[in-house]
C-alpha cells in the first residue's frame, strides 16, 4: 500500500475510534481487509483501484462522523453501518445461502484469530452463531507461501497412520458433536468452512478450537468469545405424533433464524423396544444396511424446497434423535411442510403418512 493511502486510512481509522463498538468493529474489519488486499495484490492493482478502495472507507467514515457530529446516531443509519460486509468474506464467496445472507446482514463475527507455530499459521477469520449452528472459516498458511489445499493437508496421513484432527470446547467443556467441512475452491484453496449443530448452547460463551497439525506435529489453540447474533428466532414445536409402518415420528422443534432452519425430530418404536428391536420392526424399504435411512425435505407454502446444509443422528435408550439443517427461505412463509422420503436411486419416494404441516405465526 502506498504511503499516501496508508496515511489517509490511518487518519480515518483514528477519527472513528469514538464510534459504538459494533459499528467501529465493522469499519476496522473493512480497513484490515483493504490493507491486506493491497499488500497481496500490490503489483497487480492500479493506483485508481486503490484510491477507489480508500474512497469507500472514506465515504463510510465521513457519513458516520457527520452523524456523530450532530450528537446522535440514527437507528436506521446505525443498522446500515453495522451491515457493511467485510471485503473478501468467504461466507459470501463460498458459503451456503444462509451464510451469505448472514454475512451481508452483519450477523457474523469477524474473529481474526490466529496462532503460528514453526512457520505455519492457522486462523479463524469469520464466525456465525445464530442459536442453531456454528459456522466458521478456518485457514492454514505456511511462511514459504506454498499453501497446499486444505483438503490435501487435512487428508494427509503419516507413516504412523496419524492425521490432523480438530476438537471444540464451549467454556472449556468439550463438545461431542459431528461437523462438516465445505471446501472453498481455488480462490481460497487453503481454507474451509466448518459447520456444527450442537444442542443447548448458551447465548454467550468462550469458543475454543484445538487443532493438531500432523505436518508440524504442533497443537494450535484458538479462543474466540462468541455471542448469538440473532434475535426473534421463530421456534415451532408441534405436539403431533405421526405413525406408519412401526415408525413413530415426532418433531421436537423447527427453529428458523435469518441464516438457518434447524429441524429436530425423533423416531421411536413400540413402548419398551430398544434400538435393535426398533430397527428390526421397521420394513426394509426405510433402511440401508439394516439402519434407518429416512431423509427430509422442507417445503414452503409456494412449493419451494429449502437447500440442505447437513444433518446427523444417533440412537440410545429406545429413541432415535436427528438434527437436520436447511438454508432459510427468502421470506418467512405462512406454512412449512416437512416431507420425509427414502432415496431410491435418483428418485425420492415420499412417505405422505409421516408428513407434518406447520403454521408459521406472523
TrEMBL record:
Residues 49-139 form the DUF4179 domain. InterPro entries: DUF4179, DUF5643. It comes from the Bacteria. The keyword Transmembrane helix applies. Residues 235-356 form the DUF5643 domain. The chain crosses the membrane at residues 53-73. It holds the Pfam family DUF5643. The keyword Isomerase does not apply. Keywords: Membrane, Transmembrane, Transmembrane helix. This is DUF4179 domain-containing protein. It comes from Paenibacillus uliginis N3/975.
Amino acid at each position: 500500500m502506498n504511503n499516501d493511502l496508508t496515511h489517509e486510512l490511518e487518519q480515518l481509522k483514528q477519527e472513528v475510534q469514538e464510534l459504538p463498538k459494533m459499528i467501529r468493529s465493522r469499519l476496522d474489519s473493512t480497513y484490515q481487509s483493504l490493507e491486506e488486499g493491497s499488500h497481496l495484490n500490490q503489483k497487480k492493482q492500479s493506483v485508481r483501484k486503490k484510491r477507489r478502495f480508500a474512497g469507500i472507507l472514506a465515504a463510510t467514515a465521513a457519513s458516520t462522523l457527520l452523524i456523530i457530529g450532530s450528537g446522535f446516531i440514527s437507528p436506521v443509519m446505525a443498522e446500515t453501518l453495522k451491515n457493511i460486509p467485510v471485503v473478501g468474506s468467504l461466507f459470501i464467496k463460498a458459503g451456503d445461502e444462509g451464510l451469505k445472507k448472514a454475512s451481508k446482514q452483519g450477523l457474523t463475527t469477524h474473529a481474526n484469530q490466529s496462532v503460528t507455530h514453526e512457520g505455519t499459521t492457522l486462523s479463524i477469520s469469520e464466525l456465525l452463531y445464530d442459536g442453531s449452528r456454528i459456522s466458521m472459516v478456518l485457514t492454514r498458511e505456511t511462511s514459504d507461501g506454498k499453501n497446499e489445499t486444505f483438503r490435501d493437508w487435512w487428508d494427509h496421513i503419516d507413516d504412523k497412520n496419524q492425521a490432523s484432527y480438530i476438537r471444540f470446547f464451549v467454556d472449556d467443556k468439550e463438545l461431542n458433536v459431528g461437523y462438516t467441512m465445505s471446501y472453498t475452491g481455488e480462490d481460497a484453496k487453503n481454507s474451509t468452512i466448518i459447520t456444527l449443530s450442537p444442542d443447548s448452547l448458551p447465548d454467550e460463551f468462550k469458543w475454543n478450537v484445538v487443532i493438531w497439525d500432523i505436518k508440524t506435529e504442533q497443537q494450535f489453540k484458538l479462543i474466540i468469545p462468541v455471542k448469538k447474533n440473532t434475535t426473534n428466532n421463530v421456534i415451532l414445536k408441534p405436539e403431533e405424533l405421526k405413525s406408519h409402518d412401526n415408525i413413530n415420528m415426532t418433531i421436537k422443534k423447527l427453529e428458523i433464524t435469518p441464516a438457518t432452519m434447524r429441524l429436530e425430530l425423533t423416531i421411536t418404536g413400540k413402548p419398551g423396544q430398544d434400538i435393535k428391536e426398533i430397527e428390526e420392526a421397521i420394513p426394509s424399504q426405510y433402511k440401508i444396511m439394516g439402519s434407518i435411512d429416512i431423509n427430509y425435505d422442507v417445503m414452503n407454502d409456494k412449493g419451494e424446497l429449502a437447500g440442505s446444509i447437513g444433518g446427523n443422528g444417533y440412537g440410545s435408550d429406545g429413541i432415535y434423535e436427528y438434527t437436520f439443517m436447511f438454508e432459510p427461505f427468502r421470506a418467512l412463509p405462512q406454512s412449512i411442510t416437512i416431507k420425509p422420503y427414502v432415496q431410491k436411486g435418483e428418485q425420492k419416494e415420499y412417505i405422505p403418512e409421516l408428513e407434518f404441516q406447520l403454521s408459521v405465526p406472523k
